[in-house]
Amino acid sequence: MIELEPQLRKFQKELSAGTVSLALLAVLASAGEPLYGYQIAKQLERIGGGVLAGKQSALYPVLRNLEGAGLLDSHVEPSMTGPPRRYYRITDAGRTVLHEWAAAWRATRDSVDSVLGGLEP
């Protein structure tokens, strides 16, 4: 017999891996100001209803990859309450990519919804 819970966790992990970059760009695009990692994680948790919330440490490699691709800029500022914080902001290229990725996401979502349309909830 197949255990359903591990299968669901695996599916959610795979699905999340493909959408976190899109969600991070969207959070930073709507922020209006640079955010540091903890703020980004809290926004994802709040806006995404906890679905995209994961380990905060898992966001940093994605943020670095997005920055390496020129989609984000960052700078470090000292913090009065702890170590220095790296603040991220979306670039113009990031905004362009965000719109492209959002369109691709909507097309994929609509297609999957069409396929799933006949299933009972």
Automatic annotation (TrEMBL):
Signal peptide: none
Transcription regulator PadR N-terminal domain mapped to chain residues: 24-100
Gene3D superfamilies in the record: Winged helix-like DNA-binding domain superfamily/Winged helix DNA-binding domain
Classification via Pfam families: PadR
Listed name of the protein: PadR family transcriptional regulator
Species whose genome carries this gene: Lysobacter arvi
Lineage per the UniProt record: Bacteria, Pseudomonadati, Pseudomonadota, Gammaproteobacteria, Lysobacterales
